[in-house]
Amino acid sequence: MIAWEIAPQVHCLGPLGRTQTNVYFVGTAASCVLVDTAWTKDGSLIRRAAAHLFGADVAPTAILLTHAHPDHAGSARELALGWDCPVYVHPLELPLATGDFTAMSAYAGPLDSWVILPMLRLIGQRRRHSILARSSLMPVVRALDPDSEAPGLPGWQCIPTPGHTPGHLSFFRSSDRILITGDAVVTIELNSLSGLLRHRRGLCGPPWYTTWNHSAARESIRTLAGLEPTVLASGHGRPLIGEGTSGALREFAERVG
User: Fold this and answer.
1) Which positions ≥6 away from 254 have C-beta within 8 Å?
2) What's the CA gap between 165 and 175, in Å, rounded?
3) Which residues pair with residue 31 across a beta bridge?
4) For residue 118, cis peptide bond before it (omega within 30 degrees of 0)
5) What is the pLDDT along the chain (257 residues), one digit of tens a residue?
6) For residue 172, what are the β-bridge partners?
7) Are 1 and 18 in contact (CB under 8 A)?
8) Phi/psi at 38 (nearest 5 deg)?
9) Which class for 33: exposed (0-12), middle (13-18), buried (19 or more C-beta within 10 A)?
10) pTM of the model
11) Domains of the chain, earliest start first
């Protein structure tokens, strides 16, 4: 799959696989940043897309993560080590990115509480530590300043959008109102089994089964609607592009309350 241009200097690789996950290349060969890294298995595909866009000898200068869930951070460690670049997250996301079990327990969504955490407790501390260490971004991750421009992306703002996770971030280029939303808002119906299986399009909030705070998630949707984006580049589903984008997001925000 070849990354396709959704806005000037913004390319989307995706949607990928059953979860219709997206990663974004922002910039040019002179300075490029990768936003999100999909699943662990997608690292080689992302490397090939980067080489096709910018040349085999050019690598992104940074990786920005909207949040630290495995379908967005899965390939971050592999890519960062191979490209010799840092991975940036919101400070509140740092404990999740480094495999802090206490933080995972504190910020768990329903699926974590009902399935993942009980399994990790059952296998014992030593084995749990080994599993979490293998997926930890500790060697490469850094906390960004959410009140400053996005690292490596002049003209892009960090927009804190907590709810799905405590440190979830979106990224916004105000000059042409391009918005990268991660899972704060997606364009595929992840909150129904039929929607997920059929890849049914439609604006949707973060998946309820992996969301930490639903009230905060709704407030984040309202925050994003206030930006009036011309392009909504979501973490799952085909990006929404065109004149009706801001109106569609505003109407969705009103529906979710």
Assistant:
1) none
2) 28
3) 28
4) no
5) 789 999 999 999 999 999 999 999 999 988 999 999 999 999 999 999 999 999 988 899 999 999 999 999 999 999 999 999 999 999 999 999 999 999 999 999 999 999 999 999 999 999 999 999 988 999 999 999 999 999 999 999 999 999 999 999 999 999 999 999 999 999 999 887 777 777 889 999 999 999 999 999 999 999 999 999 999 999 999 999 988 999 999 999 999 97
6) 157, 179
7) no
8) 55, -150
9) buried
10) 0.96
11) 4-98+136-256 (3.60.15.10)
- Dig out the tokens for 222 from the structure: 């309202």
Query: Distance between alpha carbon 86 and the CA centroid of its chain, in Å?
Result: 16
* Token representation of residue 234: 């979501």
How far the first Cα of the chain sits from its last, in Å, is: 37
Q: Please report where in the chains the tokens 């439609």 appear, as a residue.
A: 202
Identity of the amino acid at 53: L
